[in-house]
Amino acid sequence: MLLVLTTGRKNGDDRGIGVTTRRTMRKSIRQRYSLATLALGAVGGHKRWRPAWQSRPLSNRYDIVIVGAGGHGLATAYYLAKNHGCRNVAVVERGWLGGGNVARNTLTIRSNYLRDESIPFYVRSVSLYERLSRELNFNLMHSRRGMIDVIQTWPRLREIRRRQLAMDLHGSAYKQIGVKELRRRIPALTGGGPDSRLPILAGMVHTDAAVNRHDAVAWGYARAANGLGVEIHENTEVTALITNESGAVCGVRTHRGPIAAKKVGLAVSGHTTTLTGPAGLRLPLRSFNLAAFVSEPMKPVVDVVVNCPDLGVYLSQSDKGELVIGGAPDPGQSFRRDVKQTVFEDAVCAMLELFPTFQRVKLLRQWGGHLDIAHDASPILSATPLTGLFVSAGWWGGYKAIPAGGLAFAHLLATGTPHPLMEAFTLDRFRHLDFILESGTTVVV
Amino acid sequence: MLVIPCPFCGPRDEREFVYGGPTSARRPHDPTALSDSQWVEFLTVPDNPLGPVRERWWHARGCGDWVEILRDTRTHEILRDRDG
Ligand SMILES: Cc1cc2nc3c(=O)[nH]c(=O)nc-3n(C[C@H](O)[C@H](O)[C@H](O)COP(=O)(O)OP(=O)(O)OC[C@H]3O[C@@H](n4cnc5c(N)ncnc54)[C@H](O)[C@@H]3O)c2cc1C
Ligand SMILES: [Zn+2]
What we know:
Chain A has 445 residues and is of the alpha/beta class.
């Protein structure tokens, strides 16, 4: 229980929140989580907790409608209210809050990308995450435990060294270690010896990497956004975009009726083209399935995120003790949310090659999600040729990007101009074939 | 797992194949006749349907031929090819 709550501090040093917003937040959320409120709650038998957010009746008009209550949609709503004072905002979600990929991913938060445009954005996102528990007054169980890449081929080592040089320029840490040191840090890694198919050559340590709790990210942003006046409407599927005579988007059609909006922001991860296609807007996106699975809880065996890019598997251990394991994406386009047997078997075989002792570990659950990926494997945060329509899409490994992605999308929606961190990531880059190529560096999500 | 019908080898496990991407956009006969935006669209924008997509798979660990199938992206069911 204690883990779910942060200790509140009256005069905390959360630089992220300005004086006025702090005051409004405290007033509107009313229920702050702290050690004191937890103790009080215990005295009352935990019966006095109010719902973390309230749902108001759906109106037929908002300034801004955000489609999709995943990490990106909710973070965008929060920063719209907090940084830009936009409160007449509704987030509409076809399922339930945080039931999409935000709750289906493997939580790896990292900034080891290749391009000068990408790295500063991810560095910012990783650092926003580090202060987010305090800012949202919601314990994300953030754990900066670092990630180690297990390198088994020379081309991979060269590619990762190249990334290291680029990252050095932008303050993201990547450091090579030898095999002995690698095995010292990950004792369970007993495979990949000199006689194996792919002997381990080196390790690469990314100290900035972290994991945290995905549900808490969705709920924390939802609660904070709602506290600032944003409405969240679940079970409200957008079936089409509404355009006016001049071709501008002026609202959305939902199965609960039409909603007018001055601006519409899509954050529907995987389904962007499903909504833009019928409106005549073709985007450089394809949707693919990515899957993960977890083991039964066990005693602590790995205290870092282990990524094995040459074999196509990565894993970490959750605070509950479950191994969280992810593999390569299913090759063909897909809108399925389960895992394909071949993909699952490949990931398990890859893991056992390096961690043979995990052979007897029982697996508990498996699942998948569908995500869209852009032609150059970088996100698209952009206005569109349809006036009034903005998209936040192509988030292949977009969990790590939720704080900075939300910050930048809010900026774009509120001001109409790209956030400085995301200037290069508009649709214009395709018009000039000015790709931000990150294929390869997104293998691990 | 997909069982991909190879015209030469018959139905085979997808692990014998390498995915070759969607085939919806054919390379234009005369790229110079296109406008810049049409050319960029051909290069970067694939079909991404919630339903049947036409795609190519290379039977790399089989006969080596390229196989074209129509596959539903919601179910992964391989549909009968429209042409054959
Ligand atoms: C197995 C797996 C592992 C991953 N691992 C990582 C990782 O380790 N690190 C990392 O950084 N990223 C990872 N990702 C990627 C990450 O999860 C996504 O990039 C990110 O969650 C996408 O943004 P989101 O949270 O806004 O998406 P979502 O949570 O999917 O939000 C989109 C929402 O839009 C809703 N929606 C869709 N269509 C409509 C409609 N028509 N009307 C109304 N609502 C609609 C959906 O129901 C959904 O709730 C992983 C993904 C998967 C599937
Ligand atoms: Zn064949």
